[in-house]
Design goal:
The complex is a heterodimer of chains A (80) and B (535). By secondary structure, chain A is an alpha+beta fold. Helices cover 24% and strands 31% of the residues of chain A. Chain A has a 5-stranded mixed sheet with strand order 2-1-5-3-4. Classes of the chains: A alpha+beta (80), B alpha/beta (535).
Chain lengths: 80, 535
């Protein structure tokens, strides 16, 4: 298990009811981490529509995660 | 008779008119500008005109040729006086002959407006009190001269800003402290505070004056973008918006007021911007950006600022700038947050589709109407867009890596997430609608029975715990929790026609959208979810 800093934007933030949290997880990739959190927060968006950034850089969903990584889930936003 | 000429002697409109006579023409329109005895509350005794003749004649001839081509008129000409003029004298004459009167009027009006705007002529007023002053009249000289320089600099710095118009003349000028009178350049604007920045200076101001920027959307983001770009002296601003001003816009679009409600935004914005900075040439298109008009609009500008509130337009603009090889700045907001992304037509730069390969459907993630918004949120993002646009025009973004910038106005946190070009992305999908847009994604029903009778199979994607309290008789037998689908523990049935159901219609809509994006037809989302049904 490792601790990951997670941050949410827009609809995901609303769903999660928070903009950030520290998650203790066995997930080894952002994809696994998101699938874990989908159940916890009942996110309304499928993963295919989101982007993930790890440590301030857009990343692949299958990239390995390390303890202390900062993960940001970003939905597309349209308002203007 | 030359198309454009200067005259040091009094003009003779009768002779000018005769020179345009043509047996094929049924209409002739002319305009005369006269020397007036007052200006801005002061009594004027006489006027003095001077011009930078070689450049002015070239630009004047170009204007007349453009008018002939644009309005399809037979002949056109313009003569401008130079030297000392007394009150009442004719200072400028424009004449157009055409088959019909409508083109003659339109071309005549257009020529005088363009001449006033583009031809480097200066006017000095001599007042009753004995003093005199150069007036912010006809335009541009220094900008024109230095625009050539600006273009050269841009090429040197590897900029991707090709001039939108081949002749690259500047439309606009500036007034530096202590510079105005000597150079004969007095305008309504004083750009000294930005000229003082070493990175701007006269060369930077000339780049702005020579630039043409297209702003798509004149709403919450577009208003500050337009205001700041106009105020900064960007030479040409094109704005595109098909909406009218609504009362619900005013709280976040303070360029408009209650008196404007019902009028086209593009029209009102253009009026306000012309008043804000008369140096700027504003062109308003009262229409939404569509596949039919977007390429033409993008082609005639150097840079595009995308300020709409919908994905359809964002992807349309992204595709167009990729095709045209023009830089662009995108932004969007959601409640207290915003996202900002700059695009540059460089080999390593990601486009909007690189970042969002599945073009999201509008309505899925909420817009300002549904999600709510406070004015300063789009204002902040719009100001950031204006800044990004100025940085590009001035070449201050060299070395900037492509990124999506997120801004949270509640926590005041910003994040710069480095983005990469996606080698699998095709960047531009001209044949494809920018967002899939076929059968409705959602179907509305008033009762569950009615939904059952629709002929679609109902499938409940709520989690098990959410189903625990469903009243007997109102249960949906087919159950496939979204969490199972998302984690890959279950698969959506390959065949059949389904109505996907959840509590409020949000998850079901996103799943429907996802399935449609994979090519599935005959899947629909129950609009508003179970909460919308009458029990």
């Amino acid at each position: 298990m490792k601790e990951i800093e997670v941050q949410y934007f827009a609809v995901l933030r609303e769903r999660a009811g928070r903009s950030r949290e520290t998650v203790t997880t066995a997930a080894t990739t952002p994809a696994q981490l998101f699938d874990e959190l989908v159940v916890r927060h009942a996110f309304g968006l499928p993963r295919a529509m989101l982007r993930v950034a790890v440590n301030e850089e857009f990343a692949d969903w299958s990239r390995p995660l390390a303890a202390g990584d900062r993960v940001v889930f970003i939905p597309p936003v349209a308002g203007g | 008779m030359p198309a454009f000429a200067f005259s040091h002697a009094a003009l003779d409109p009768g002779r000018e008119c005769a020179a345009l006579a043509d047996p094929a023409c049924g209409g002739f329109a002319s305009f005369e500008g006269w020397v007036r005895d007052h200006n801005e509350g002061r009594s004027v005794m006489r006027l003095e005109y001077e011009a930078y003749e070689p450049l002015a004649i070239r630009e004047g001839e170009r204007i007349v040729a453009e008018a002939v081509a644009r309005f399809g008129v037979a002949r056109a000409a313009c003569v401008h006086r130079l030297g000392d003029l007394a009150i009442g004298e004719c200072a400028v004459w424009v004449g157009v002959s055409a088959a019909h009167r409508a083109e003659a009027f339109a071309a005549c009006r257009w020529i005088i407006d363009e001449v006033k705007h583009r031809v480097p002529i200066w006017k000095k007023e001599h007042y009753a009190e004995g003093d005199s002053g150069w007036v912010n009249c006809e335009r541009c000289t220094a900008a024109s001269l230095q625009a050539a320089d600006a273009t050269k600099h841009d090429a040197e710095s590897g900029g991707d800003l090709a001039p939108a118009h081949a002749h690259g003349h500047g439309h606009g000028h500036w007034h530096a402290q202590g510079f105005g009178h000597a150079g004969g350049l007095m305008t309504a604007m004083d750009y000294s505070r930005q000229l003082a920045l070493p990175e701007v200076g006269a060369a930077g101001q000339a780049k702005l004056a020579a630039a043409a920027v297209l702003v798509v959307g004149a709403g919450g983001l577009g208003v500050p973008v337009l205001q700041y770009l106009a105020a900064a002296g960007v030479g040409r601003l094109g704005l595109v918006d098909g909406d009218v001003v609504e009362r619900s816009n005013l709280h976040r679009q303070p360029l408009y007021g209650p008196v404007d409600v019902g009028r086209p935004k593009a029209e009102v914005a253009a009026e306000r911007l012309r008043a804000l900075n008369p140096d700027v040439h504003v062109t308003a298109t009262i229409a939404h950006a569509t596949a039919d008009n977007v390429d033409g609009l993008v082609a005639s500008h150097d840079l595009v600022v995308e300020c709409t509130d919908n994905f359809r337009a964002k992807f349309l603009v992204s595709d167009a700038v990729v095709r045209a090889g023009k830089p662009a700045v995108f932004a969007s907001v959601h409640q207290y947050e915003g996202q900002l992304q700059a695009y540059r037509p460089l080999p390593h730069w990601p486009c909007l589709r690189c970042l969002w390969p599945e073009a999201p459907r509008d309505g899925l993630v909420g817009n300002c109407a549904e999600a709510g918004v406070l004015g300063p949120v789009p204002a902040t993002l719009g100001a950031l867009q204006a800044m990004a646009a100025l940085k590009r025009l001035l070449g201050l973004d060299a070395g900037e890596a492509p990124a999506l910038v997120t801004v949270d106005l509640l926590s005041l946190e910003t994040r710069r997430l480095l983005a990469h070009r996606d080698p699998r992305c095709d960047h531009d999908r001209p044949g494809e609608p920018s967002v899939p847009d076929d059968a409705p994604l959602e179907l509305g029903f008033t009762t569950l029975v009615e939904a059952f009778e629709s002929g679609l199979e109902l499938i409940d994607i709520r989690e098990s715990w959410e189903r625990a309290h469903d009243p007997p008789g109102l249960q949906i037998p087919a159950h496939l929790p979204l969490s199972e689908l998302v984690q890959g523990h279950a698969e959506f049935p390959a065949d059949g026609r389904y109505l996907i159901v959840c509590a409020h219609g949000v998850r079901s809509l996103s799943l429907t959208e996802h399935l449609r994006a994979q090519g599935r037809r005959d899947v629909y989302s129950l609009q508003g979810g179970l909460a919308a049904l009458r029990s």
